[in-house]
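Question: what's this shape?

___
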Amino acid sequence: MPSITCLMAASTVPRDILDAAARLVADEGPEVLTMDRLAGATGLSRATLYRQCGSREAVLDALAAEGRDVGDRTDTRTRILAAARDVFGRTGFDRATMEEIAEAANVGLATMYRYFRDKDGLVSAFLDELAPRRAAREARARATGDLRADLERLAELMLTGMRDDASIVRLVLLEMLRGGPLLPRIRTLSPTRTLGTVASILRDHTTAGRLRDINPRVLAQAFAGMVLAFGVIAPIVRGEPAADPRAAARTLTDLFLHGALVRKDAR
């Protein structure tokens, strides 16, 4: 069933432009449908096309609403960020261009700038979606009040994200070590910002009397350090096999809560 977005797009794209777009897609496939090609097929200027249709994506949405095969219509922002992941992973932050990412996402350059304003905006949005910050937000939203369960879930989500985003985590580490131009933004948007969210989770448990009355940010730094040891230092810095996120989460949570000392009452 066409999405509401597609149905709305279908009602706003003029029929003659939509028919020309349909012929291009049928003859050569959706990837060739650019505003330049559509301008040539309709005899209209690019400016007129943008004024009457809005964007290439709006035309494709309109065609999809009519049941035509126009390829992947995944949410445009999601598609751009997925393409950015691939391009950043191959070329690094500095060398990647908006044009290259737009091509990988199969969107127009104007669409890139509409969603992200500029490359800085794209990098910021991309880093904002990376683990462990995303994982910390999710764990905060799903907090149950069970101290061990909440910490294990947080650690597992963070470790899973670090494993899945290993190439990007490595890239971020290199950027930080070399002091590149993106360093200030990475420091603002990457794992260090996670501490605030982790501290808020631990603060709730401290207030409830489940943890000692220690500065929650100090506790968060200790916990995050253990997660980084399992998720970054061992697999990325030392080249060891990535630990199973669930098992590692259970181990580090136990160490965080109880330490490594043998308790007399456990003998």
